[in-house]
Amino acid sequence: MEKKETKQHVVAEAEQENGTLIEDEIERSKVGIMRALCDRQDPSTKEVDDLMIRRFLRARDMDIEKASTLFLKYLAWKKTVLPKGHIPESEIANDLSHNKVCMQGHDKMGRPIVVAFGNRHNPSKGNPEEFKRFVVYTLEKICARMPRGEEKFTAIGDLQGWGYSNCDIRGYLAALSILQDCYPERLGKLYIVHAPYIFMTAWKVVYPFIDTNTKKKIVFVENKKLTATLLEDIDETQLPDIYGGKMPLTPIQDS
After folding, report:
1. What separation in angstroms does the CA of 104 have from each of 16, 179, 188, 227?
2. Statement: the pTM of the whole predicted model exceeds 0.85
3. Structural domains in the chain?
4. Which one-letter DSSP state was computed for residue 179?
5. Neighbouring C-beta atoms of residue 201, cutoff 10 Å
6. Are 165 and 121 in contact (CB under 8 A)?
7. Measuring CA to CA, which residue among 253, 227, 218 is closest to residue 96?
8. What is the enclosing helix (H) or strand (E) of 101?
9. Contact 145/112 with Cβ under 8 angstroms?
10. What is the SS3 assignment for 225?
11. In terms of pLDDT, which residue wins out, 138 or 7?
12. How many CB atoms lie within 10 A of CB 199?
């Protein structure tokens, strides 16, 4: 009886320390192996929880070697890009001033909702390095907004009014690389709405760089089915008002 209580106490402590425990035995075993391998090369592995390691494994179809390579690359990247643990807003003032990204509400699964406006991004008036920092700032804010036990977010990419002056292939590829390599398995679903025909020219360039797992999460929504489609996953009280819901948009820096 005492042993059973002790075991329960250990499990409770582990849950408190690491968050949700991994129930799948195979996943739990692979996470343990990968953690041990990576810890030998980078002791900062100890600072991340098991769910993060599992996300990297899932992004590489549970291949420990490939996932470890990606994860160690991420740890090195983080030390360079996030030495303070966050991106100061003073470093991305230009990108923030255009209110390109808003965040408010949660979908029916409890995932934070973020809306990005393609026509508010003008690469000729910006700085590529600042934009990369802005992408990291955005993803860090989204992750911080996730409820306990939730690992993903829902995004709406709004291309209303998008034109060639907004086209930024280099910026799109940089953002995609950051999302896939440094925040794998964080995107739950991406709705692309109000996409003009000319956007498909840029999309054809970017599409080959999107990994298979991410491609499955992207949905182009027809204008006539916009509100109905979004309401399938987002309650009316949480849906942004510009799409027929009741939630006012909030710039990400104010959320």
Report:
1. 27, 20, 16, 17
2. yes
3. 1-80 (1.10.8), 87-249 (3.40.525.10)
4. H
5. 11
6. no
7. 253
8. strand 101-106
9. yes
10. helix
11. 138
12. 20
Residues in the chain, overall count: 255
* Stretch (H or E) spanning 156: strand 153-158
Q: Which of 99, 154, 88 is nearest to 122 (CA)?
A: 99
Sheet with 112-117: strands ordered across: 101-106, 112-117, 153-158, 187-193, 218-221
Sequence-ordered list of residues with C-beta below 8 angstroms from that of 51, at least 6 positions apart, any chain: 18, 19, 20, 22, 151
Structure token digits, residue 132? 């990369």
3-class secondary-structure state, position 105: strand
> 105 is written with which tokens?
């509400």
One-letter amino acid of 96:
L
Paired tokens of 164: 């060639």
pLDDT digits (tens, 9 = 90+) for 142-156: 999 998 889 999 999
Tokens of 75: 């740890």
Q: How far is CA 94 from CA 103, 179, 231, 254, in A?
A: 18, 21, 33, 15
Return d(Cα 63, Cα 233) in angstroms, integer: 31
CA distances from 76 to 79, 98, 140, 180 (A): 5, 31, 17, 16
User: Does the pLDDT of residue 9 top 60, yes or no?
Assistant: no
Q: For residue 56, what are the contacts with CB-CB under 8 A and spacing of at least 6?
A: 34, 67, 68, 70, 71, 74, 184, 185
In the predicted structure, residue 165 carries a pLDDT above the cut 50: yes
Residue 217 CB burial class (10 angstroms; 0-12, 13-18, ≥19) = middle
